[in-house]
Amino acid sequence: MADEEKTAKDAEKEEPPAAEEAPKKRRGRRGAKAAKVAKAETPKKERAALKPGQVRVYSVEGEPVKTVELPSVFRSEIRVDLIRRAVTAFQANRRQAYGPRPRAGMRHSVRWSGKGHGVSRVPRIRGTMTGAQAPGTVGGRRAHPPRPDKVWDKKINVHERRLARNAALAALRDVSLVAARGHKFSDDLSLPVIIEDEIETLAPETGATREGFSILEQLGLDSDVIRAKEGRHIRAGRGKMRDRRYRQPRSLLVVVKAPEKVRRLFGNMPGVEVISPAALNAEILAPGGAPGRLAVFSEGALEVLRSWQP
After folding, report:
1. What predicted TM-score, i.e. pTM, was given to this entire model?
2. Domains (ranges, CATH) in the chain?
C-alpha cells in the first residue's frame, strides 16, 4: 500500500511540467507563422518599387521577370464621353431592323355602318359585330408600329473612334477603374498585366484549358474567371425566349499576336476573350461603355502598340 501511495504522488508531481510545455509549443507555432508572414511580405515590398509609366513583366509561372515602359498610347486622356459615344455607335450598327408586314392587321373584310345607327364608328367584320382593322380593336393593326425601313446606324468620325480606343487603353492601367468594374485580381499586380511571349508558344496536347487556368492562378487572376462563371444568370424579359436566355459577365481580355494558338488555353473560360492588337476597339476594351477592363498583354502585343499615336 505504501508503494502505491508513493506511485500516485509521483504521478501527480510529474503532471504539471507537461501542462507547462504546451504553451511553449504554441509560442513556437506562432513564431513560425510570424516568420512565414515576414517572408511573404518581403518580396511584396521589393515589387512595389515601380517608376511612373512602368509595369512588370511576369513569367508563365507568375514570377516578375523585369520591368518595361508602357507605350505612349497608355498616357492618353481618359475620355469617358468619347468611349460611350463609340460603344453606342458599335451597338447601333449591329442592330437589326424589324417591323410588321405592310398589311398586318388589315387583312379583314370589314364594313362601317355609317353614322346615325347608335353604334360606334369602328370597322366590323361583315355579318358580325366584331371590331377589326382599326387600332385598339381585337385583331386590329397597331397604331404606330416599328418601321422595318428605319435606319438605326450611327456615324462616328474615324479620328473620334481612334481617340475613344486610346482612352479605353489608358483606362486599363487605372486600378480604381478596373476595380470599379467588379474585376477581382491580386493587389500586388501591376496593370495591365504583361506576360512573356512564352504564352504564345505553349501547345499542350490535352488539358489546354486546365493549363491556362493554372497560369491565371499563378498570376492571381483566377478569381476573376470564377466571378464571371458564378455571375452567369437568366436574362430578364422576352429575350430569354429568343435564343439569348443567359447573360454572361465579361472577364479577362487577353491580347496576343497569335490569338488562334492562345485561344486553346483561355478561349473556353467564361467571359474571357482572346484577340490580336489589330482587333482592339472601344467596345472590347470598355464593354457597355464602362472603361477599365482587366487585360493581359503578351510582350509582343505590347510592342505592336508602340507604333500607335496617342
Report:
1. 0.76
2. 54-95+153-233+246-307 (3.40.1370.10), 101-113+120-151 (no CATH)
